[in-house]
Amino acid sequence: MEVRKLVTLMKQCSTVKQAKQIHAHIFINGFTFLLPVLVHHMLLRDITNYRTVAHYAYSMLHHLQNPDSFSWGCVIRFLSQKGLFTEAVSLYVEMHRRRLYPTSHAISSALKSCARIQNMLGGVSIHGQVHVFGFDTCVYVQTALLDLYSKMGDMGTARHVFDGMAERSVVSWNSLLSGYLKAGNLDKAQNFFDQIPKKDVISWNSMVSGYAKAGNMDQACTLFQLMPERNLASWNAMITGFIDCGSIVSARELFDAMPSRNCVSWITMIAGYSKGGDVDSACKLFDQMNHKDLLSYNAMIACYAQNSKPKEALELFNDMLKPNIYIHPDKMTFASVISACSQLGDLEHWCWIESRMNDFGIVLDDHLATALIDLYAKSGSIGMAYDLFHGLRKRDLVAYSAMIYGCGINGKASDAIKLFEQMLAECIIPNLVTYSGILTAYNHAGLVEKGYQCFNSMKNYGLVPSIDHYGVMVDLLGRAGHLDEAYKLIINMPMQPNAGVWGALLLACRLQNNVDLGEIAVQHCIKLESDTTGYCSLLSSIYATVGRWDDSKKMRTGVEGKEIIRIPGCSWTRCNSCGPSSLLISHITFLEVLGVVKRARAQGNFMKQSDLLLNADDLDAMWEIKLTTGTQPPPPSLNSSRRGEEGYPVKNQEINHDVSLTQARIDMSELDAGSDFSSA
């Protein structure tokens, strides 16, 4: 085969398979001098599987009889362009060790890669070689150096490089401008922007985005109106700025005024609505999208998960896997899906998600493991959460916060406190979520003084307590009997207390039998909530406890003459792949539990009269069991599950103290085939 024909084939090469065939002809015909040309043409083609191309080109470099700088430079530039920055820097280092004279493209690509992976040491080392190899006046190399120091935040050196440039392109000006904006120096950035001789759309976008990120939307709008040319990035920067400032209405007006929109525009608005808790508007936008890609689905699934709609998140995840839609999920998808499962507090969903992750080849990294820690903790499997936590390669703020919160809600206050202290010792700054967890731990342990100290320490980290933090503190003080302090804390709150805060005070009044504060709390709850059944029931119980039966009856009757019906609380128990599936089995289950109740009475467990009034007219109707799938076996007559396995609670909300006492005294092993139904 002639050399000319091989060169023609190289220019037409579009796949790795074709490149290998040409490579074979080169060896067969002894035209090894054409190998660098093959490498060059192969890297110029827009081949989809660029990682395979990079690997093959790397192999060819090491088989060249006469290695040349041009071929090595082509591969380094290709790696950098495709985002393989670490590989690009490594190949440049190897090129230097082989004593090959680098090209300007090799050095500029290596500097660009160092900037992207924050490799300051490597960048400074290559900067020294710039002088050695005489690239001080090369505009490509100087611009790459400028970009390196700007991204690293070393604006002094960046300005020195800029001032020493013999020729400055608009890219050079924009690099230094971006550096000033990234450093938060808007005044210098504005002065420098005014000096740019030929501003392009990137220059304008940088300034608009800089002011928007700083929250100065007035100046951002002024610049936006002055722009001679706008692109999609200009509009998206303004929309993002309005959303970050909490002005979702202005963001939507700008979104509607856009001449055209891309996927980023839609996703930005969906994320904005999600941030504001407006799930319905986000859903409407999502439905209006003509083309939905992976990022769109990820944004909407995250919206559902972040706004306490886990079922909708899982339903949308199922939809994206349907044959008529099918979009391959990634790690971000599963992070949101795991978060949704954790809100359901059900490990059964996790088993299904885990199988899907295996199907799609998703490896459990630290990010996903942290989401899984949250799931295990909220499902009551704190031991499994600890195992994952200790197995993390790097424990960051999110991991610590999830673990601290998990220990807090599972009653392991001492463990939560130790984790919090360990986190601070590692110089990890806590956030609002961290404090929610540690305050919950202090609440469960009843440590009022330490809880107060922790609450007051939030200001040391520049954190402003949210309404949820105040709610936890009110609950902590109230349960400890400090009702006056709890009420004073509510009155002095910097924001308007919600029904949750007043409800915490009311529950504390129920525990401490404080009628006066209980009445105040109920009045506020009635103003803030439409469904006041639970609040009125609590106040009715307080009246009954202190012997004010007429008031108790009036409260139960309700303000409109309708009797208040309160659904009894229940603790869910998960059982091993079983559950009453028919009316007959449900009836047998009821009789079984009723028998346990009778035996509980025989042991001296009687409900207080006030509790009886609080929950139901008939004591026997108070008891309810819900059996679903899991590990704790019910009677053999109900299922064929394995024996000898321990059960675990799926959800254990605030339950009646008498129910807790009874549960502690009754051995669940009584629920066997020999139970005496007739005794009920």
How would you characterize the overall build of this protein?
The structure is a single chain. The model is unreliable at 576-587 and 612-680 (pLDDT under 50). The protein has helices at residues 3-12, 16-29, 35-44, 50-61, 69-81, 85-97, 104-116, 120-132, 139-152, 155-163, 170-182, 186-195, 201-213, 217-226, 232-244, 248-257, 263-275, 279-288, 294-306, 310-320, 331-344, 347-359, 366-378, 382-390, 397-409, 413-425, 432-445, 448-456, 467-479, 483-491, 499-512, 515-528, 533-545, 549-557, 583-602, 609-615, 657-665; strands at 573-575, 627-629, 648-649. Among the domains are: 466-566, Serine Threonine Protein Phosphatase 5, Tetratricopeptide repeat (Alpha Horseshoe), CATH 1.25.40.10; 573-679, no CATH class. The chain contains 37 helices and three strands. Helix 17 (263-275) packs antiparallel against helix 18. It has a three-stranded mixed β-sheet with strand order 2-1-3, with no helix packed on it. With 680 residues, the protein is mainly alpha-helical. Residues 628-659 are annotated as: Disordered. It holds the Pfam family E_motif. This is Pentatricopeptide repeat-containing protein. GO terms for molecular function: RNA binding.
Q: How would the blueprint of this fold be written?
A:
Elements: H1 3-12, H2 16-29, H3 35-44, H4 50-61, H5 69-81, H6 85-97, H7 104-116, H8 120-132, H9 139-152, H10 155-163, H11 170-182, H12 186-195, H13 201-213, H14 217-226, H15 232-244, H16 248-257, H17 263-275, H18 279-288, H19 294-306, H20 310-320, H21 331-344, H22 347-359, H23 366-378, H24 382-390, H25 397-409, H26 413-425, H27 432-445, H28 448-456, H29 467-479, H30 483-491, H31 499-512, H32 515-528, H33 533-545, H34 549-557, E1 573-575, H35 583-602, H36 609-615, E2 627-629, E3 648-649, H37 657-665
Region (Disordered): 628-659
Keywords: Membrane, Repeat, Transmembrane, Transmembrane helix
GO molecular function: RNA binding
